[in-house]
Amino acid sequence: MAGNKSYTIVEYFGGDDGYRCGYCKNQTGNFSHGMWSHTMTVQDYQDLIDRGWRRSGKYVYKPIMNKTCCPQYTIRCHALKFQPSKSHKKVLKKMSKFISKGELPKGQEDGEPMDSVCEDAGPREPSKVCHSELKCASITDIEKEAAESPSITETQKDVTDAAPTSSETSRKDPASVPDGRTVASAPKPGLGADASRPLCRKAKELRKERRLQKEQARQHNDGASPIVSPTPTTPAQTSQAKPLEDFINESLPENSSHCLEVRLVRSNPPSPQFKASFDASYQVYKLYQMAIHKDPPDKPSESQFRRFLCDSPLEAEYSPDGPEVGYGSFHQQYWLDGRIVAVGVIDILPTCVSSVYLYYHPDFASLSLGSYSALREIAFTRQLQKQSPKLSYYYLGFYIHSCPKMRYKGQYRPSDLLCPETYAWVPIERCLPHLENSRYARFNQDPEAGDARLLKDVGRALVLYRRTVMPYAAYSRKRKGPSDEAEVQQYAGLVGQDCAERILLYRA
User: Fold this and answer.
1) Cα–Cα nearest to 147, from 506, 486, 471
2) For residue 463, how many other CB atoms are within 10 A of its CB?
3) What phi and psi values does residue 235 have, to the nearest 5 degrees?
4) How far apart are the C-alpha atoms of 10 and 500, rounded to whole Å?
5) Are 153 and 457 in contact (CB under 8 A)?
6) How far apart are CA 26 and CA 222, in angstroms?
7) Are 292 and 364 in contact (CB under 8 A)?
8) For residue 125, with 0-12 CB atoms within 10 Å meaning exposed, 13-18 middle and 19 or more buried, which class applies?
9) How far apart are CA 67 and CA 431, in angstroms?
10) Counting C-beta atoms within 10 Å of the first and last residue's C-beta, which end of the chain has fewer, N or C?
11) Is 340 helix (H, G, I), strand (E, B) or coil?
12) CA torsion sign, 258 to 260 to 261 to 265?
């Protein structure tokens, strides 16, 4: 390409037909816009998922929120502010017990189902693009064609994010019983705390206060100036919350029955480690699809596995201020005693780690690997943030409130949902009341707010036409035949100003 510049090249499919929904099983209720991405920069994909898009392999789709049967809201977790809940700690302790003692917990997974692989959202293969043309095209500089286009007014500025999320409402801990189990106990009837008695305080806090009193008495006897006693601190002030990393490290003890190792391998372009472990990884995926999603034995094929979970439009990118592993698509492999038991498919993007999919060996379903892998990916995001300060979010894909089994993603807090009309991030606590009343909801309550990144002049959208990059205004003058302005206008509105002016929309 001219000037060695990387471009994103897509072919837009539209979204008029209904497809089968993987959540409520409605045969024609799933509506989404779709496009095939031949190649994509990580920044373009970051901007797209911040407008409600999501990839499945090289296919990128955006649910039509006010039309689809199960509206899917993009959700992100503030990784740096995340604190594990009681249920999260329970998952980590369960893993720790398994690794140290070697006994699998009884019963099935009490965690969460993962997202279904997007098989029914629409077309999957490009219908018009010649691959050799895209790979061998000598794309001309855009400035040549841009000079032919009329001047275009500037668009409005970015909209700011919503207010920071509030902390999750605390819940009472279950009562502790002698054998180490925890059971929820009903509150006993009574009149409440005795206001005439002092509040309960920790022994550590009392010892500290006694030492301070003794020091004051000693200095007073020695004639020294007395030390001013500080205001007694509350338990909340004295005890800091234990970080997630400490719980994870506890779940990986030394000298244990099992050894768990998490390896990061690049899936696109495939690294030598990815190639070497491909067959073992695929076998786990096949068992998972058959046991968890009830696929017939012939459906979880190797080609399907490659297509949805290995192929990616994101090329490897590196930046001086980015993470050492670079940006792009990866597999996080969970190796237990030398064999793969689970794989998390993720994308590392400029401001986030985006979860794509998780699959695991059915024999380990009782370990709640869905929750465990999410916690490990949040910790991984925090690790990357130390190398790249702006990379501070963990995207969990879509939050589907109308599907009770998919509400678990809202438990990773603080988190935000993306407003489907203004594309502003709104704390999930403010969104849930709206979703209780309606499947589809606008979260931004400012009636004057709109899509601040809407491309108002379709002439500025970039297209790839006959191996040449040009604005749509120039392309429309050269093109013969019926106008396709309505389709390009729809596409430009969906991807937004930033992407429309960078991404190359293929036109035959």
Assistant:
1) 471
2) 22
3) -55, -35
4) 11
5) yes
6) 83
7) no
8) exposed
9) 19
10) C
11) strand
12) positive
pLDDT at res. 488: 97
Bridge-based pairing of strands 504-507 and 260-268 is unpaired
Q: Taking the CA atoms of 358, 114, 348 and 82 in sequence, report the sign of the dihedral they define.
A: negative
3-state secondary structure string, 473-507?
A: HHHHHHCCCCCCHHHHHHHHHHHHHHHHCCCEEEE
Query: Would you state the pLDDT for residue 208?
Result: 61
Q: Are 427 and 166 in contact (CB under 8 A)?
A: yes
SS3 329: strand
Q: Give the span between the Cα atoms of 430 and 447, in whole angstroms.
A: 16
Confidence of residue 14 (pLDDT cuts 50, 70, 90): confident
* Of residues 124, 130, 128, the one with CA closest to residue 35: 124
CA angle 482, 485, 490 (to 5 degrees): 135
In angstroms, the CA 215 to CA 225 distance is: 11
- Give the SS3 label for residue 399: strand
Burial 205-236 (b: 16+ CB within 10 A, else e): beeeeeeeeeeeeeeeeeeeeeeeeeeeeeee
Contact (Cβ atoms closer than 8 angstroms) between residue 20 and residue 108: no
Q: How many CB atoms lie within 10 A of CB 51?
A: 18
Helices (DSSP H) in 155-301: which residue ranges? 203-221, 235-238, 244-250, 272-276, 278-291
Q: What is the pLDDT of residues 324-339, one digit of tens each?
A: 999 999 999 999 999 9
State the pLDDT at residue 213. Answer: 64
> Is the pTM above the cut of 0.90?
no
How far is Cα of residue 122 from the mean position of the Cα atoms in its chain?
Answer: 22
Helix (H, G, I), strand (E, B), or coil: what is residue 109?
coil
pLDDT at 170 over 80: no
Distance CA 312, CA 505 (A): 18
Backbone angles phi, psi at 492, to 5 degrees: -65, -35
- The runs of H, that is alpha helices, within 140-238 are 142-146, 203-221, 235-238
Instruction: Specify whether the CB–CB gap between 341 and 360 falls below 8 A.
Output: yes
How many whole angstroms separate alpha carbon 146 and alpha carbon 333? 46
End-to-end CA distance of the chain: 19
Length of the chain: 508
Q: How confident is the model at residue 191 (pLDDT cuts 50, 70, 90)?
A: very low
Span 101-113, average pLDDT: 71
The alpha carbon of 51 is separated from its chain's Cα centroid by a whole number of angstroms, namely: 13
Position 115 pLDDT exceeds 80: no
pLDDT digits (tens, 9 = 90+) for 76-89: 999 999 999 999 99
Token pair for residue 74?
Answer: 């993009």
3-state secondary structure of 84: coil
Give me the helix-helix angle, 485-500 and 42-49, nearest 10°.
Answer: 110
Work out whether strand 175-176 and strand 182-183 pair parallel, antiparallel, or are unpaired. Answer: antiparallel
